[in-house]
Amino acid sequence: MPVPKQRHTKSRRNRRRSHLKLKKRTLGSCPKCGEPILPHHICAFCGFYNGVERIDVLAKLEKKAKKKKEKELKEHEGEVKETAKAMPTGRQVKPLSLEELSKK
């Protein structure tokens, strides 16, 4: 059985292992419900992908569970809309009063 002629150094070992690191997963948010999702994946919470409903999430649920899920989705969408309204999209400009106009 072959045996190495010389011992490999720590630096050589570490350089070889430099590509074995784990990468951090990037998460996006679903534009419909705001849940975190992986890029290029269907949202498991609402079933939408690229603005189109691909999976009917409510179809497999029983009647009580279906009503509960619908209510939850509506509440969640309302929260997302409220937070979007609260966040300023750009620089807000207040209208100037007469005193401020005359100061220059």
Task: Please describe what this structure looks like.
- By secondary structure, the protein is mainly alpha-helical.
- It has a domain at 25-84.
- It has helices at 10-17, 63-86, 98-103; strands at residues 28-29, 36-37, 48-49, 52-53.
- Strands 1-2 form a two-stranded antiparallel sheet. Strands 3-4 form a two-stranded antiparallel sheet.
- The longest helix is centred in the C-terminal third of the chain and has 24 residues, at 63-86.
- The protein is flat.
- The model has no long low-confidence stretch (mean pLDDT 81).
What's the SSE blueprint?
Elements: H1 10-17, E1 28-29, E2 36-37, E3 48-49, E4 52-53, H2 63-86, H3 98-103
Antiparallel strand pairs: 1-2, 3-4
Short description, anyone?
This protein is mostly helical and 104 residues long. Helix content is 37%, strand content 8%.
The biggest sheet, with number of strands, parallel, antiparallel or mixed sense and barrel status, is:
2 strands, antiparallel
Strand order of the largest sheet: 1-2
- The helix count comes to 3
Classify the beta-strand content into a percent band: 5-15%
